[in-house]
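Sharing a chain and its predicted structure for anyone who wants a worked example. Both blocks are below, sequence first, tokens second.
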Amino acid sequence: MRFFLTALLATALLPTLPAVAQNVPPPATPFQMQGNIYLPNKLPATDARVAALKLPSGFTVSKFAEGLDMPRMLAMMPNGDVYVSNRVKGTITLVRDANKDGKAEVMRQVAQKPHLHGVALQGNKLYISAIREVYVADVLPDGSLGELKELYHDLPDAGQHANRVLHFGPDGKLYLSVGSTCNACDEDNPENATILQLNTDGSLLMGDDDNG
């Protein structure tokens, strides 16, 4: 009886074997692709190159500061102080023209946290965006910053476009760009490839607010 059941089971499985074999993917074929990437030349901003820039009538350009090492975004106070971010180092640098001659004499680091990038000023507060967080700090009388306080901490995970940029709108709300994680794909998070609207207390006006 046991032999009969075993033979019957084996007979029942035989028709399925060719179908299983047909579902086995073919072996991978090695493939190589070559392309070209054109990178712009990095040239120092010499006085001669600055003077050669073509400008609309009535405009002038001059070098305000140098030696900042990969500056990214900037925000300017009413008194002319400039705050410059460096995402690679995660720093915010105060750049100041103390004698008002059009050239900065002061360059002083005033904040550092990983991936600081976007900067926006409102009153005496500086708002700074990182990959997943937004911070706010008081601007002190000497231009330094108070403690960086976390305002928002639930931005989407970064991908190919991780740099967040901040800007205040005419409505007083904070607008934050959130890039896509790739150049061509379906996003899992609805907040990727969007602009988010936040209150200055950190509450999210447009999007899913899981910041609490």
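Comments welcome. Confidence is low (pLDDT under 50) at residues 1-14, 208-212.
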